[in-house]
Amino acid sequence: QVQLAESGGGLVQAGGSLRLSCAASGRIIGILPMGWFRQAPGKEREFVAASRWSGGSYADSVKGRFTISRDNAKNTVYLQMNSLKPEDTAVYYCAAGGSWDYWGQGTQVTVSS
Question: Which residues of the chain have pLDDT under 70?
């Protein structure tokens, strides 16, 4: 089993930055794909970014603004979010596993215009 806990969300003005963290416990995350998803009010959950052995991947809407990274020694994955826009407002979820088998509880990110 893997437990995931997100942190780092908050309120920021448009153009600002936030860094989300996802701490994993219960299993070494170094062998697992890790990713971030988000869900805005009234919308479906959508993919944001993923970190796999083959490298990182991003949704088109965040390319060039968001960066995913991981510290396997700390069992932690990060999402650096720059140039934030109001449309980035959502609950952000950390996920892990080949089929996104494990999920965190989410952290709220609100970007004001």
Answer: 27-31
